[in-house]
């Protein structure tokens, strides 16, 4: 082989690669090489590397050395096969297959039978002793090459085939004979000539080179580019190209092609799973052109190949130590392997397979943790539709869209936001159905059980907002025709069946995990995994709990290795108890604002309206025992575990009546000359406290500093509750957290006052409360001055929701509903920064503040209490940054535990 100038090797024979060279050879090429080296029957071939592609993409031309290197490998291949590419009397044919490191939509489809020409088609026929086969192969080449390499509209070829079948009065392609196919070849060539202005290339090497270049070019197709941007796959990886000698499944009934899984991708059970199609080539088996048979039937059709395939599947599974999927072809009774890769699987199967493989001794516990993920666990925790009913006759499946936000929702169909709100206020459950949603639909979306749209994908407004709200959503169910004006939706009739009309008020059920839409009520059953976490179901009780048993074991592995502790965001004893059952190791965020709502609102109003010190003290005095009781219950539920209580955070207007409503009330009273002194004062206060940007207004520590006695009352309630628990032989571990601090001075003032109050309570009760005082880091300034702030804080808790808002300078409520869709579609975000922490921006502040804080105070406790605390990718980031704990909503706790375990198992 000629040495390239810079010694770089651009072409690897299948015998030269292996499965770990995916960066260089792409997934398909690396696995073809691996199978070759395992001694499995892979048709010989070679792979052009991603490096060659990169040169092409950078410079607009193949690397100069590539042509010779390909020639050398082609020579070797020809020597091995004993025939030359396109040789007239006995042609070597090859396939040209793209294969990047990650499989992605929009890459060039494989072209089979390269090397056939007007000349060699006769040679192929003679060699095979089968004219029909040769002409069938040739027409496939022109069709595939025409469409994917030359860019001819594929429908033109399909139409010609349909006409040929019609003319002959047959319905399937196998009923076209050699003469018909030969005629088709002529027509196909005419199509190519007409559409491209030149004839179908007859030179075999030119066919191959053009196909290779087309693969390179497809890397920068629009669909591939968009996909990469959204999935954050770098644009400079490039794709490899595989040249693989052809084997033929279309050589008669003793030939065929199939796909197989080494285990059931739905249950994880071992067995025979796959499909087979006799006398067929390539994609026929998945294209649905004829009915396939279950793989098990191959045993009857071709016992020897079947046995060999079973053997190979076992070899592959043992070798890859995982479920593999496989493409194979049988040519006249000889089995060939054309592809394998670690196969996709359902969430439940992922857990079962991981533990099965541990039991088989194929993988260890750390590897089992890598084989599952939090998204899968979350999926298993959603309630689901009763399968029996969903597939029975009492409900009707009427459509399927994109599974945009998981869960199962049932309700009456409504077609506008106003009705959704109205009906839900009167206690009805509703499903909001729109063609697509926009910011005006927000109230309706909040009111609805679930959202269904007929347009839009995973980044549409409906999908983004529903995910943000944790609400079930199916979007883009295109077969549904939504008519919001007439308040109905129709499913058009098909195949002689009548259409269906769904009117406002009809009950529909939507499955946000599968995208399925039903007319009628599908009962919702609880997730067995949640039943298990709740302690209502025990692992290993019966067969149905194979899944639960697997989850149980994997969670145990995760808990054993993880370094991050997991706490809950919980505001009351009930949530706290649930969180504890789910494995919470404390409360990372107890918000006290809910304790100020409901019937207590009036007392808060009095506090806000207080003119004199006396009035204020009375109001605070009334709130104190109520607050104290809340804390007693909470500390009891979390006995022995830390509970971080955040002092009051939200802007005061949230506790006051709505400005418009109150203004109307006062105006009406005025007109009746019926003055209500209290309402007047209230209105004044409401005006005074009304803010343009409440998110940036009078809230958090600022409240504590301008409303004398407020924080002191809260601290006293916490201290007395803790003292009471101690008196009851409990083990309260309260941590007092000051929100929205921007400078250490704020913290110092609050701290001094708090310490004074605590000392008073300790002295009065004769106890040592061991309360700690810390702060949230949720403003950029706090993060930037973390070294100073740590001087006055026992702990930091990163409030990543507010930190994200303040670092980006946008408010979540406003942006999610307005421009996030556009940003996601343009690929500016791969995912909303409120879902997964923005590592480069917000994350780097977290990292720096954590380091600075620890530098000041090495024992500073560090946690996070934003919603990111339950997001898988973010959990890995917090692990890496070295935080002590994450805190998330009770329902996300298992996900956080699992991901914390996975982060530790990755050994970083
Ligand atoms: P994809 O990535 O879409 O699966 P592949 O490169 O695997 O594309 O090829 C598409 C189809 O053609 C598959 O069914 C594959 O098994 C078949 N195929 C690819 N190369 C050959 C070959 N050399 N001989 C026979 N069939 C082939
Ligand atoms: Mg394939
Ligand atoms: Mg906050």
From TrEMBL:
What this protein catalyses is: pyruvate + phosphate + ATP = phosphoenolpyruvate + AMP + diphosphate + H(+)
Enumerate the InterPro entries for this protein: ATP_grasp_subdomain_1, PEP-util_enz_mobile_dom, PEP_util_AS, PEP_util_C, Phosphohistidine_dom_sf, PPDK_AMP/ATP-bd, Pyruvate_phosphate_dikinase, Pyrv/PenolPyrv_kinase-like_dom
Query: Cross-referenced SUPFAM superfamilies, in alphabetical order?
Result: Glutathione synthetase ATP-binding domain-like (SSF56059), Phosphoenolpyruvate/pyruvate domain (SSF51621), Phosphohistidine domain (SSF52009)
The protein's required cofactor(s) are namely: Mg(2+)
Give every PEP-utilising enzyme mobile domain span: 428-515
Ordered alphabetically, the record's keywords are: ATP-binding, Kinase, Magnesium, Metal-binding, Nucleotide-binding, Pyruvate, Transferase
Question: What's its EC?
Answer: 2.7.9.1
Q: Where is the PEP-utilising enzyme C-terminal domain?
A: 549-900
To which protein family does this belong? Belongs to the PEP-utilizing enzyme family.
Name of protein = Pyruvate, phosphate dikinase
Which organism is this entry from? Streptomyces rhizosphaericus
